[in-house]
Amino acid sequence: MNQHGQVQAIGGVNEKVAGFFDVCAARRLTGAEGVIIPDANRKHLMLRRDIVPAAEKGKFHVYAVSHVDQAMELLVGQPAGIRDKAGHYPADSVNGQIQSRLEGLRARTVPPCPGRVWRSQARCPTLVDGARAQSVVVEPARWCR
User: Fold this and answer.
1) 0.85 cut: is pTM over it?
2) Cβ–Cβ < 8 Å for 95, 80
3) For residues 28 and 142, which has the higher predicted lDDT (pLDDT)?
């Protein structure tokens, strides 16, 4: 996947699908098993002869996705959600739950600092103008720059 959530093509898709199918078949197919492949690999997909009938009977599934949201919906069984004009996702969507959780973590981990900007991922904190600052440990792993 790239930084925009677009699923990129992979090498050896046929071998990867066949390998996972073999593991699932050894454990007895229930119909819940399947693979997610990049949509860009769909044209290169050549399923092995024993995989085709299993897929036709609904015992094994091959899902082609072009965006991470499509994969999330398959894996979680909920809509990924579409961002509104204000940048918010519906609360009952996967992305909405992620957004809510991140906002909650941010509210907990980013304490107020008058006149300074807080950051929680700093290894080498710096002042806003780029000059080096001393690390100020507020709580474990939280820094003020």
Assistant:
1) no
2) yes
3) 28
